Amino acid sequence: KQTNMSIPLCLYLYRWLQVGDPCLRSSDCSDSLCCARHFWTRICKPVLREGQVCTRQRRKGNHGLELFQRCPCGDGLSCRTLREPAICVSPFP
Prior knowledge:
It is found in: Secreted. Belongs to the dickkopf family. It holds the Pfam family DIKK1-2-4_C-subdom2. Residues 20-48, 51-84 form the Dickkopf-related protein 1/2/4 C-terminal subdomain domain. The protein is mainly beta. It folds into two domains: 1-46, Lipase, subunit A; 48-93, Lipase, subunit A (Ribbon), CATH 2.10.80.10. The protein has one helix spanning 9-14, and strands at residues 33-38, 41-46, 78-80, 87-89. The strands form two sheets. The chain has a two-stranded antiparallel sheet. Strand 1 and strand 2 form a beta hairpin. The protein starts with 8 loop residues before the first helix and ends with a strand. The model has no long low-confidence stretch (mean pLDDT 80).
């Protein structure tokens, strides 16, 4: 893992970043976390589980800056609009 110079090196020596820790990229964060925008910074947030509200991917250039970005759905799940809002669902019933 590469280090973020604003975070003490000791954090990288003993653990990967946890929920709420500042990050540069998802690979900085512990398993089942991603690096997502929170206001004007980026922090580690939990990857979404089945049934949680998700944000559908939009075409490039067709959306504004999200102040509270969500992580993607976890492995094997996809973000679907079965009803509003979109939620993470398994492809198999």
